[in-house]
Amino acid sequence: MGTAALIVVEQGSEWPGHVVDCENVVAVGYDKEGLLQRARQGLESLRRRGHYLRVAVLACNDATDLVSVAHRAEVAHELLTAVSAAGFGRLLLSARDRASMQLRGELLSLSGVLRQKLQGSPATVSVRFGGASDGRRGLPQRSVRKCLAEPAGPRPMAARS
Question: Model-level pTM?
Answer without folding.
Answer: 0.77
